[in-house]
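Hey, can you fold this one?
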Amino acid sequence: MDRTSFAMGVVMERRILANRWQTEQWVPIAVDTDAAESAPPQLIYKDMSCERWLHPGLEMRLYRDEAEGYFLNCSTAQPVVFVSWRMEEDRARPWLITASYNEASRLLDAGEQVEGVPMPEPVLRDVSAYVQLHYRPQPKKRIRPPSFRGARRDE
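Sure. Predicted structure:
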């Protein structure tokens, strides 16, 4: 498997809420493998309760040191592409996409907005092939509790 990067677009949905504290909610709802070319966001759907914006031209890269995270994702019942996005002025803008559970977890720990959207089947096949090629589980090592290691009394 030679494919280590995927160009995609992210569809962000703006939902109008009937709430006095929050008037809208932004949510990524899909990735589009046909929206690979970089371009400004495009309004692709609008009705009274929501708008959908396509943000084309994001790139998802695969890295060997993230192979465990890809494995964890691909081995679930519903693999996802994690979308990290930020509010810029009055719009949500996706800035990073990844297939790694571990990377998504680190982003969440750093306070970023991260949500999963269904992974397209062709991307899942390629990411799974990458995992087969590069992921080698580390052997489990028994960690002895400190009480069994022997205490040093000279400290």
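The mean pLDDT is 91. Let me know if you want another pass with a different chain boundary.
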